[in-house]
Amino acid sequence: MDEEGQWINKKEPCKDQQKLMLLLKDVEEKLADLKARWPFHSVQPRMVAEREDLEEERERLMRLLDDQQ
C-alpha cells in the first residue's frame, strides 16, 4: 500500500528501494496489529481476508526489493 492506503499497481512496480522498504514496514506493522487483535475463537471472515491481503502484499514487496538488488 502507498501512503494513502492504496495498493501499488502490480503492473507498475515502484523503482525507489527506500519507498518500497517504507511500504514493507507499513504492511508489517499492519499485519502485527491485526495479529495482536486476532481472537482465539470465531475469527471474522473480513479479518482472514485482510490478513491474506497483507501477507500477499508483503510477499510482493519483498520480491520487488529482491529484484532490485
TrEMBL record:
Alphabetically ordered keywords of this record: Coiled coil
Coiled coil: 17-67
Superkingdom per UniProt: Bacteria
Record bears the keyword Coiled coil: yes
Name by which UniProt lists this protein: Uncharacterized protein
Record organism: Desulfosporosinus lacus DSM 15449
